[in-house]
Amino acid sequence: MTALIVCSGSIKDYSHYEKYFKWAKAVICVDGGAKYLRKFGIVPDVLIGDLDSISDEDLDYLVSMNVKIMKYPIQKDMTDTEIAVDYAVDNGFKEIVIIGGIGTRLDHTLANILLAKKLLDKGVKCTLVDENNELILINDRIKIEKEKNVKVTLLPLTDVVEGITTKGLYYQLNCEDIVMGSSRGVSNEFLDDVAEISVKKGILAVIKSKD
User: Fold this and answer.
1) pLDDT along the chain (211 residues), means of 10
2) CA-to-CA dists, residue 150 to 91, 175, 192, 205, angstroms
3) What is the pLDDT of residue 211?
4) β-pair type (95-99, 141-145)
5) What is the DSSP pairing of strand 125-129 with strand 95-99?
6) Interhelix angle 106-121/80-90, nearest 10 degrees
7) Are 28 and 49 in contact (CB under 8 A)?
8) SS3 for 203?
9) Residue 33 DSSP SS3
10) Which residues contact 63 (CB under 8 A, 6 or more apart)?
11) Cα–Cα distance between 165 and 210 in angstroms, integer?
């Protein structure tokens, strides 16, 4: 089952996210992400957060729609997004997609990327998406589909990722290691309609990006 978590970062091209709503079995709204859900025409299953960034109008609307609201104090030990992620895991979701999790705040963006590592440790697949990027962390293997004008970047999130092998990419790796801080895996290109990436040890960020 897939849970879609909608945060209050940058969302501009609403049509880009339609497929993710089709896949989702539950929609979790994180605080100010409510403004985007109203534009999508989607009523979430739950609103989570300290409610410091949601407008009164959006909050009143969700209350009128009988949306479950889980309010937390502003002073707390985790972000609203992490609370939402934990809620999804506690409710049995094995796949999570986060939209609106990338924005102008680099600290929040990086924290959301690292949430994917927390989820990977729990055996939960997490994808972080905006209009130009799709990021997923792996510790085993993945297949990714070619998209027009999209490049593929592989970045280690552990000191070293061992035994990286790729198929279907222009710059191929054959059971090779990449250390954290190396830019070797940046901006690869598709050769085939489907590319395969596998690792023997470590955590690798697989990012599909377009300008």
Assistant:
1) 95 93 95 96 97 96 97 94 97 97 92 95 96 96 95 97 98 97 96 97 97 84
2) 34, 24, 13, 16
3) 84
4) unpaired
5) parallel
6) 20
7) no
8) coil
9) helix
10) 69
11) 23
